[in-house]
Amino acid sequence: MSGGAGGALTAEGMERRIRAYFDDCNSGIVDNIACHFEPDAVHYFPPGMYQGPFRGARTIAQRWKAAVETLGSFWTVDQVICDPPTGRAVIEWTHFKRASGVILRGDEWYLFSPSGLIAEIRAYYASPQDASLQALELGGFDYAGRGYPTKAP
Fold it and tell me: How far are the Cα atoms of 18, 21, 38 from residue 104, in angstroms, in the given order?
């Protein structure tokens, strides 16, 4: 599966990749999950979650397999917007943690490689603001290095 015909990213191909990735996450089969990623892909999360970002296709896959096995995790893709010229997509999702009856909702930003594989995911969760933090941002993500503002004007 690629992001589009002839290696060119398309909105349809990007959405197919994301939906197939979620289907494979729900299966808990490591090889099926890992095949959607570049080998050195990174999945970022809010600070303090999961001991930091998941680094590498196999690590991402193994962590989601463990969530399926221990939490009864099941995910849905609820909304998708794709921008092929920039290789970016954003989705809304729902995570059902069936073992505990918890429903978690959030958004993810995707960065695709030219080959149509996922190179990066940045997860944002719908939850209350943590008053103990001065910077509410993704753990391990290089905001300054990527040109994001780090001080108020």
Answer: 18, 18, 26
